[in-house]
Amino acid sequence: MTPLPKFSVIETDFDTVLDCDGQIVILMPGDAKLDAVARRINKATKGALGRFLGSKDFDDLALGKVLSLAYPTGLNAKSVAVAKINGNASVADARSCGVEIAKTAKCENILLAGGKFKRIADLVEGMAMRNYEYLDQKTNTKPKPLDVRVMVQELENQAAAIDLKMAVVDGVFFTRDLINAPANVLTTTTFAKQLSALSKLGITVEVLDEPALEKLGMRTLLCVGQGSDSPSKVVVMQWNGGGDGAPFAFVGKGVVFDTGGISLKPAAGMEDMTMDMGGAGVVAGAMKALALRKAKANVVGVVGLVENMPSGNAVRPGDVVKSMKGDTVEVINTDAEGRLVLADILWYTQERFAPTGMINLATLTGAIIVGLGHEMAGVFSNNDQLCKQFINSADAEGEGAWRMPLAPAYDKMLKSRIADMKNVGSRAAGSITAGQFLQRFVKQDMPWAHLDIAGVASIASESAFSPKGATGWGVRALNRMIADHYEPQEEATGE
Ligand code: BES
Ligand code: MN
Ligand code: ZN
């Protein structure tokens, strides 16, 4: 488990600055106006800070970027990092400045002189999000999370704001660890165990095993896992922080490894399919975040955990399977397995919980990467209001999301000669036909959105908030959507 960085909020105090033997970080506006701490540092360094701030180097430094002065005379610190940021910086600016601070940190021990900066919690969130490295499989390398003392005004307010951010970052790290884990480590069984452990946080967790799924008639889900030695499972996580009403539902594709099955994938890059449980990983992280911050909402997370392997027992192209809903599916391509998993858990979620709305997440199609690359997830929805709620939340969190169409003309592409439908269309509009397939398992009036996260769940180069590998995309957007639209809104406190 990757440890979280630590942030403790303290009073502003000059001696603490002079004594700090780690890295001091100060926030400096573009006009280089010194606050009290900066003036004190300038004095201690016999004007070195001032000379830097008057230099072309500082002038050339872009807003949001960081430059550090090493082993300054007159201070105990290893370095003083100057982050250039104006007092009126936006939330997004503050967050990405925090990312820069974490990226350029010279040691774990950091004293962040926040001064009067208002968006300190957003800046801290950026630092925390970037201070992640997956080292669980390295033998002799231990993670060294940042240990940050934050000097701020309005101690209590800022401490509470930071705690709230860190609850969500905790969820993000959980998601990243799950997605980064190799498939021999994160099997359907160990995945279910990790989810069961969420019960410590007050989440009610149930694990449905193969006999239970068989009884429910989840044949489209089960057919995906039938070639694997790892047993298929469905895990149901309920967070009931909001009284008696029906819950909102998150549903996730959890293919712990996707070989393609009998429709085997090519060898090159197949190792990436260890992230094919990304949808389930994001659902798990979002549930954890909601529980940690004790969200006043009812939310249920349902994930389908399977492994898609070829074997003598695997489902074949041409097989016809019956879904829990009752519709039959001709499996043309065993590599279009995610939709088979989701079909049954979407149906199960609606039958059991009659949720107020439902969002599913899945690393569903390579085609969404062709369309949107690694910047944005595809959003498919039957409901404009829900769709806007989600996309606005994603925008606010800096997580890219872009609406894609659904339409009956695409649905026609799923017509099967012998069954109620087939599981793939043609090559054209691959992500949309996948969405159409899912929509067949969504009830008429159920507000629903499908997020195709194949391009954003895990990335080969670093992204805005994370190093290479799993990003945790979606945890913060889902958390915000629940906070902004499915929880009682706090009265403005009018200061
Ligand atoms: N898990 C893959 C989609 C994927 C591709 C995720 C690349 C992440 C990165 C999915 O199960 C799959 O194989 N989809 C097929 C569908 C096709 C057979 C209709 C695809 O996209 O090629
Ligand atoms: Mn596949
Ligand atoms: Zn897949």
Can I get a quick summary?
By secondary structure, the chain is of the alpha/beta class.
Q: How do the helices and strands line up, and which of them pair or pack?
A:
Blueprint: E1 6-10, H1 14-19, E2 23-28, H2 36-44, H3 48-53, H4 56-60, E3 66-70, E4 79-84, H5 91-103, E5 109-115, H6 120-130, E6 147-152, H7 155-180, H8 188-196, E7 204-208, H9 210-216, H10 219-225, E8 233-240, E9 248-258, H11 278-292, E10 298-308, E11 320-322, E12 328-330, H12 338-353, E13 357-362, H13 367-372, E14 376-381, H14 384-396, E15 400-403, H15 408-411, E16 421-422, H16 430-439, E17 448-452, E18 458-459, E19 469-470, H17 475-485
Parallel strand pairs: 1-6, 2-4, 2-5, 5-6, 9-10, 9-13, 12-16, 13-17, 14-15
Antiparallel strand pairs: 3-4, 7-8, 8-10, 11-12, 14-17, 18-19
The structure holds ligand BES, manganese (II) ion and zinc ion (ZN).
